[in-house]
């Protein structure tokens, strides 16, 4: 399984999003954090901005919806052209119905878990989703440090996916950098979101390549 690197544009210059998407043209996806100031204590961007990003991005978009009522809003991100749409398990009222709707619209469906949300109650959903996002920081802000205590959950998620014989990706998001990416990959993650590590680098393509190489040696 290849290691996928999805830089988060939360750490890009919001006055120059098109230019900053251009900087990550060697990435696998651009990770777009949608926050509504209710599910998390921060506000970023919504559908009108996302629709334009989908039109100008050189790489497919990976939408991470940190919003309440994703049952109502998430399908519109798939319709806007997101390649992948991830909603939070804690916020969805009908996750199976929502995941099916996202797939029907042609997107990969993802379910995200806050650091303190266990994966076990969601294992029955595995065949309905394409991705599990294990948050490795509390969602809401970039630049926080990686919570090591999430590693066992990544391991349990990977084990459940392997046992079920499914091709479900495991994504990690938060505090991912050269110093943490190998441990996340060892635990079973294969998709890596990095905001400050990528956009804070002097040479963005070199940072993407370095992260991909470090992770690639540990993804199994
Ligand atoms: C946080 C967001 C992340 C954020 C990660 O809630 O979901 O995608 O951009 O930022 P870093 O990589 O700086 O921790
Ligand atoms: Zn995110």
Automatic annotation (TrEMBL):
Its cofactor is Zn(2+); a divalent metal cation; Co(2+); Mn(2+). Pathway: Carbohydrate degradation. Pfam families: Ribul_P_3_epim (PF00834). SUPFAM superfamilies: Ribulose-phoshate binding barrel. Substrate binds at residues 8, 64, 140-143, 173-175, 195-196. Binds 1 divalent metal cation per subunit. Its EC number is 5.1.3.1. It is an enzyme of class 5 (isomerase). GO terms for molecular function: D-ribulose-phosphate 3-epimerase activity. It comes from the Bacteria. InterPro entries: Aldolase_TIM, Ribul_P_3_epim, Ribul_P_3_epim-like, RibuloseP-bd_barrel. A divalent metal cation binds at residues 31, 33, 64, 173. The active site is at 33 (proton acceptor), 173 (proton donor). It catalyses: D-ribulose 5-phosphate = D-xylulose 5-phosphate. Gene3D superfamilies: Aldolase class I (3.20.20.70). Keywords: Carbohydrate metabolism, Isomerase, Metal-binding. The keyword Isomerase applies. NCBIfam families: PRK05581.1-4, rpe. Catalyzes the reversible epimerization of D-ribulose 5-phosphate to D-xylulose 5-phosphate. Belongs to the ribulose-phosphate 3-epimerase family. This is Ribulose-phosphate 3-epimerase. The lineage of its organism: Bacteria, Bacillati, Actinomycetota, Actinomycetes, Micrococcales. The gene is rpe.
């Amino acid at each position: 399984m290849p290691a996928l690197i999805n830089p988060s544009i939360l750490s890009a210059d919001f006055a120059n999003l098109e230019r900053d998407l251009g900087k990550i043209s060697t990435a696998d996806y651009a990770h777009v954090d949608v926050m509504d100031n209710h599910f998390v204590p921060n506000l970023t961007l919504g559908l009108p901005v996302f629709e334009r990003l989908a039109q100008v991005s050189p790489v497919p978009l990976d939408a991470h919806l940190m919003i309440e009522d994703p049952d109502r809003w998430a399908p519109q991100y798939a319709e806007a052209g997101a390649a992948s749409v991830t909603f939070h398990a804690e916020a969805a009222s009908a996750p199976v119905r929502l995941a099916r709707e996202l797939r029907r619209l042609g997107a990969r469906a993802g379910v995200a878990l806050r650091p303190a949300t266990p994966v076990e109650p969601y294992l029955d959903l595995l065949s309905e989703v394409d991705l599990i996002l294990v948050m490795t920081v509390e969602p809401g802000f970039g630049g926080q440090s990686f919570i090591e205590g999430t590693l066992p959950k990544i391991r349990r998620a990977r084990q459940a996916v392997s046992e079920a014989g499914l091709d479900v990706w495991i994504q990690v998001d938060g505090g991912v950098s050269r110093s943490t990416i190998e441990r996340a990959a060892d635990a079973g993650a294969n998709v890596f979101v990095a905001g400050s590590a990528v956009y804070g680098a002097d040479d963005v393509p070199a940072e993407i390549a370095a992260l991909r190489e470090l992770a690639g040696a540990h993804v199994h």
